[in-house]
Design brief:
By secondary structure, the chain is an all-alpha fold. Helix 1 packs across helix 2 and helix 3 packs across helix 4. The radius of gyration is 12 Å and the shape is globular. This is DUF1871 family protein.
Amino acid sequence: MMNAEFNIELYKLIADWNPMKFEDASMGDQEVYDCMDIIHQTDDRDETVKRIQHVYHFSFDQYIPAEEIHLLLDRVATLNMQCKL
């Protein structure tokens, strides 16, 4: 079960990821929240990757490589384990 600590750290992790390389990372806040929602709702990793790609494609007409998202999801999994301790 993901908890409040996890949600706070997940927000920071995705905001810091900043795949659009915005100088002001808050410009991607809505996408961060969308990604958080996807991560919470989607169990299938490949589906999660596709849905995150869609978020950034829809918002910025940019394609995020699957490999980059897989690296992010690896960090999310590690974070989830740390927050369960």
